[in-house]
Amino acid sequence: MFFLNSDNKYKDITPGIYQNIIERSRSKFFYLDLDIDDTFESRFDIIILHSFIIFYFLKNISENEKKLSQFLFDFMFDDFDNNLREMGFGDIAVNKKMKVFVTAFYGRIANYSKGVDQIKKNKIDEILNNALLNNIYKGKEPKVHNLSFFKNYIIDNLNYFSSRGIKKNIEDRFRFIEFPIKEKINEG
Fold it and tell me: Is residue 17 helix, strand or coil?
């Protein structure tokens, strides 16, 4: 009898997980309802935010399941590389841009992680709010309820993934929670 090793399993499911990240990140909700500029850089940041939620969840599970993080990271950055090449960038420009992307990715992941850890330990949201202001809103002052939405969105997705466990999340390719209705967002 043939059994797939976990590496093959992760390789097979990674495209579906990444597709969920991309679909959610392209939602007009972020750009129309939450006043995010619809730019290449902002789209990159929304993708990183969603990947962070999954990476943060995965960091607290078994070592074997953590391999999924590496597969997702590799797949995501291969896609970034391919997109740059499709946009007409040459090898040298792609290499330079990819270094910028990787540095930005690790910086954002570190700041979001510190922010979520601070919320969990002390119920203080200063670090996460600053990370969201700098990365998502690029220093512009958003409406208070928009910033609160992102903070709650991150925490709610992490709680959702935790409540479902790794097996169910993998089966569903880490499908994110549904967006709240607009009236609830505006109530802040």
Answer: helix
Q: Is the dihedral of CA 109, 115, 116, 117 positive or negative?
A: positive
- Quick: pLDDT tens for 73-105: 999 999 999 999 999 999 999 999 999 999 999
Task: Spell out, as residue ranges, where the chain has pLDDT lower than 50.
Answer: 1-4, 183-188
126-135 vs 144-171: helix crossing angle, rounded to 10: 90
Task: Please state, in angstroms and rounded to a whole number, the distance separating the CA atoms of residues 184 and 34.
Answer: 13
Nearest to 30 by CA among 21, 96, 6, 61: 21
Residue 9 in tokens: 């399993």
Residues 120 and 117: their CA atoms lie apart, in Å, by 5
Length of the chain: 188
